[in-house]
């Protein structure tokens, strides 16, 4: 036991040092808001949310928690792989350090999370999303298009059976995404696994506010309807060739597919198509660092919400790295 004569001294490194008879006995880190691992992200969320008005409640008492505080709770949920609002409420009640970093004195109820997050996702989320993309200035002239499997619970009624290139047959969903050359998600969607890649044409229409010139994809997107949609949007689509039991590419009925075959099999087109695989590092980062794939989740709405906040946290990290002049996209332990 430490005697009462022990003195407490607070040094500049935010540690509490216990000194007894001129000797250092113990040094303990202070639980201040600045010491929390997510403190910088919490500060960034405050700055972004302060640029927009608070979402207004239609009825009831004045709100006890700001939009920024709710968003910070969702950032905490993504980082610590928390699957439900009840678990988030229970976890925050035990983590006073995180509450101090969020500026919250009392933990919101799980029903409050459900109501407030739904309102934020309808309005504030997309404004913050576009604000981050504006700050990051994505290199959108050349983009990549692909999908990745997301396994779910075997009891999920919304999920379907699909087949992945490496995973094989699986049960769950797919994340379809179009990312820029510097791996920033410009457009994305979550569908059941049985949804074919060449049916995700809605992603092309959402690229209207980005200056996309060339879109690179694999053979699953070698479809005459996608070529026509990209042409209408002023985008050049280049894909790997899908023979589909055709004797030769020259026998393709679609003129767009024949033109694509000539472009990607020689010269510049063949060289550019090799860059398409870079989107795989984007998917692997989301799965490894942010827990994108959650097999215990069930229901497409729950999975969509999970992907929604995982991608936002990824963008927040990218913006933080830009402000800190960190150019590498490696994992923190490999930098």
DSSP strand count: 9
Q: What number of structural domains do the residues give?
A: 2
Count, helices: 12
Poorly predicted sequence stretches spanning 5 or more consecutive residues: 1-14, 24-29
Instruction: Give average pLDDT, whole number.
Output: 86
What class would the helix/strand composition place it in? alpha+beta
Order of helices and strands: EEEHHHHHHEEEEHEHEHHHH
Domain Transposase IS4-like: 140-316
Domain Transposase InsH N-terminal: 31-115
GO molecular function, one term: transposase activity
GO biological process, one term: DNA transposition
Describe this entry's structure for a reader.
The chain is an alpha+beta fold. The chain folds into two domains: 34-52 and 63-122; 138-298, Alpha-Beta Complex (Transposase Inhibitor Protein From Tn5, Chain A, domain 1). Helices cover 40% and strands 18% of the residues. It has twelve helices and nine strands. It has helices spanning 39-49, 67-79, 85-94, 96-102, 110-122, 124-136, 202-205, 224-232, 255-264, 267-273, 279-290, 300-323, and strands at residues 7-10, 15-20, 23-29, 142-151, 160-164, 168-180, 185-192, 214-217, 236-239. Strands 4, 5, 6, 7, 8 and 9 form a six-stranded mixed beta sheet that branches. Strands 1-2-3 form a three-stranded antiparallel beta sheet, with no helix packed on it. Residues 31-115 form the Transposase InsH N-terminal domain.
What are the SSEs and their pairings?
Elements lengths: L6 E4 L4 E6 L2 E7 L9 H11 L17 H13 L5 H10 L1 H7 L7 H13 L1 H13 L5 E10 L8 E5 L3 E13 L4 E8 L9 H4 L8 E4 L6 H9 L3 E4 L15 H10 L2 H7 L5 H12 L9 H24 L12
Parallel strand pairs: 4-8, 8-9
Antiparallel strand pairs: 1-2, 2-3, 4-6, 5-6, 6-7
Helix pairs in contact: 1-2, 2-12, 3-5, 6-12
């Amino acid at each position: 036991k430490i005697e009462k004569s022990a003195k407490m001294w607070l040094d500049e490194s935010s540690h509490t040092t216990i000194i007894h008879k001129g000797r250092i006995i113990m040094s303990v880190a202070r639980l201040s808001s600045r010491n929390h691992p997510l403190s910088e992200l919490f500060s960034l969320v405050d700055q972004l949310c302060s640029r927009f008005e608070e979402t207004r409640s239609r009825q009831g008492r004045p709100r006890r928690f700001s939009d920024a505080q709710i968003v910070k709770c969702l950032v905490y949920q993504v980082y610590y792989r928390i699957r439900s609002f009840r678990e988030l409420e229970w976890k925050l009640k035990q983590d006073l350090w995180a509450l101090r970093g969020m500026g919250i004195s009392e933990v919101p109820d799980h029903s409050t999370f459900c109501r407030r997050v739904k309102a934020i996702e309808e309005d504030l989320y997309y404004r913050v999303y576009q604000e981050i993309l504006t700050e990051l200035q994505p290199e959108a002239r050349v983009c990549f298009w692909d999908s990745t499997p997301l396994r779910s619970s075997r009891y999920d009624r919304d999920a379907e059976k699909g087949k992945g290139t490496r995973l094989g047959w699986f049960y769950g969903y797919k994340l379809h995404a179009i990312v820029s050359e510097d791996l920033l998600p410009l457009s994305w969607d979550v569908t059941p696994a049985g949804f074919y890649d060449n049916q995700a044409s809605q992603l092309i229409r959402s690229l209207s506010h980005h200056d996309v010139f060339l879109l690179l994809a694999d053979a699953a997107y070698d479809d005459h309807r996608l070529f026509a949609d990209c042409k209408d949007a002023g985008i050049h689509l280049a894909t790997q060739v899908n023979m589909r039991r055709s004797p030769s590419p020259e026998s393709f009925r679609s003129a767009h597919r024949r033109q694509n075959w000539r472009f990607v099999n020689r010269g510049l087109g063949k060289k550019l198509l090799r860059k398409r695989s870079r989107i795989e590092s984007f998917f692997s980062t989301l799965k490894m660092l942010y827990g994108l794939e959650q097999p215990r989740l069930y229901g497409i709405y729950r999975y969509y919400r999970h992907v929604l906040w995982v991608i936002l946290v990824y963008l927040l990290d990218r913006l933080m790295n830009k402000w800190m002049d960190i150019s590498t996209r490696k994992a923190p332990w490999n930098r």
